[in-house]
Specification:
This protein is mostly helical. The chain contains 24 helices and 2 strands.
């Protein structure tokens, strides 16, 4: 049909549509003539981000969208830089990689998975769940006492040909060069912790463990940990190469060793957790993606700095720090959520906790964030609110043995459930205007908030230490609640857990 016969409105609409599709046509043309791009598409971990990056490079986004896409791609660029540096270092570098370190499933998850109906074997369940129901004050830090998986012969690092990295500008390639330079210094021990090998292995593990159905949020959470680790290791090597005191060099090498163990713990748990929910139906979330902030890893030098003045190693300082305490408790909260759901499903009942992208991403955040500001606290409280308060109806039905009204009475009467309402109270203070309403109502709300803060941290949190104290206390109360729910769902026959409760 000739365009002369088309009504003017329809013609204009078609011209506008054709204009709008031009960038996509250009993108298709670019794909057809770019073999490197096709190579990138064969990598399942980076294909979607690679496509966006190629379109961004070719100017296919308008200015405002280009800025947003650029921020979105920051973790991808670091990952791509890591891959490029690994390839540049060649076969000799691959010998240092240990991706199998991250491939092991958690002992608890593996034990639970062996049983279609876990309650059928009391001894097995006790072995699997005992670590989850013991007193919250007990923190398992045995992983900090073990030998490092990343102690590498310095000769293996010094013989790497880092000249191949001269054309690369990524933070990882810079760290590779710094680690090589440190290995050449006199007075360096025969073995040293290789952060580059560890970061490269994490990348390899991600490609192996998340090849299908991965989400951008999955890459984002681990990518931030990698970025923080890369920054921490880079700074330590820079200071090592400037240090004149052997004791200073030794301390900073031990900082790297302690940090590497923390990273192992975080990444290993992360892969176990995401593996445990691989078969779950994760609902899409309408909420915007959570803010990506520095992980607890970046706080390590600050929190263990005092060990230089006392008779303690950096690993010992990390073991007793709030960094380990809070992140381990955050992991326990997330693991308990999955355990409670599993016990319900094994009993032929519906899950207590619904899993959405926001909830899953939030639970990962519980295990990585240590709050120092009101903004950080708000994001943690949001997660706990979504997980527990928004599922309060299901919790009432569980504890009321199917009777929600009976469960409602128990929730209001028994102290163990109070933390659910405390989370709501704190969130109301952080997210809502408490001064809105009648004077008596405002006064009542302010008193409720004040009483809540007084119970958890003594007063309204203002300083970094106040926010950390509040976060830890809230975690303790939530774990106590989860433990009560877990014990409620387990059979009492054969004195199950009687030994561990003494």
């Amino acid at each position: 049909m000739k365009k002369d016969y088309l009504p003017e409105g329809i013609l204009k609409a078609m011209e506008t549509l054709a204009e709008a599709t031009l960038p996509y046509q250009a993108a298709v043309d670019a794909l057809k003539h770019n073999t490197e791009f096709f190579t990138a598409l064969r990598d399942p971990l980076v294909s979607k981000l690679g496509m966006m990056d190629s379109a961004l490079t070719r100017g296919l986004f308008d200015d405002s969208l280009a800025m947003s896409v650029s921020r979105l791609l920051e973790p991808y660029h670091e990952l791509a830089g890591t891959k490029a540096a690994i390839e540049a270092l060649g076969v000799s570098f691959e010998g240092l990689l240990k991706p199998d370190v991250y491939a092991s499933a958690s002992a608890i998850g593996a034990t639970m998975a062996e049983f279609a109906h876990p309650i059928g074997d009391y001894q097995a369940i006790r072995s699997a769940l005992e670590p989850l129901i013991r007193a919250t004050e007990i923190m398992d830090t045995t992983w900090l006492k073990g030998s490092s998986a990343w102690l590498v012969e310095k000769s293996a690092i010094s013989c790497l040909d880092v000249g191949y990295l001269s054309g690369l500008t990524s933070a990882f390639s810079h760290l590779c060069v710094l680690e090589h330079e440190t290995s050449l210094l006199t007075g360096i021990p025969d073995t040293l912790t290789s952060a580059t090998s560890q970061i490269a292995s994490i990348t390899a593990a991600l490609e192996k463990e998340l090849p299908i159905g991965w989400k951008y949020e999955d890459l984002l959470s681990t990518s931030k940990l990698i970025s923080d680790y890369c920054g921490l290791a880079t700074r330590q090597h820079e200071l090592i190469q400037k240090a004149a005191d052997p004791a200073e060099v030794s301390w900073r090498l031990e900082v790297l060793d302690a940090a590497s163990k923390f990273v192992d713990r975080q990444v290993g748990w992360y892969l176990d957790f995401t593996g445990a929910i691989a078969d779950e139906e994760i609902a899409d979330s309408e909420e915007t993606a959570s803010v990506v902030e520095p992980t607890a890893l970046s706080l390590i030098p600050t929190h263990i700095g005092y060990t230089r003045r006392v008779d303690k190693t950096p690993t010992e300082g990390l073991e007793e720090s709030v960094i380990v305490t809070i992140t381990e408790k955050g992991k326990r909260i997330a693991d308990n959520v999955l355990t409670i759901n599993k016990l319900r499903l094994d009993a032929g009942e519906d899950r207590i906790f619904g899993l959405s992208e926001t909830v899953v991403g939030g639970m990962l955040n519980l295990s990585t964030s240590v709050c120092s500001t009101e903004e950080q606290l708000g994001r943690i409280i949001d997660v706990l609110y979504f997980v527990f308060y928004e599922n309060l109806k299901h919790i009432k039905t569980l504890i009321g043995c199917g009777d929600e009204n009976k469960g409602d009475q128990m929730v209001r009467k028994e102290n163990v459930y109070q933390c659910i309402f405390d989370v709501k109270t704190i969130r109301s203070d952080l997210r809502h205007d408490l001064d809105h309403g009648k004077p008596n109502e405002v006064k009542k709300k302010q008193k409720s908030v004040g009483d809540c803060y007084k119970e958890y941290c003594g007063n309204r949190p203002l300083k970094p230490k106040d926010f950390k104290k509040l976060q830890e206390r809230v975690y303790d109360k939530v774990i106590e609640l989860e433990n009560a729910l877990i014990q409620m769902m387990l059979p009492e026959e054969n004195g199950l857990f009687a030994e561990s409760s003494g």
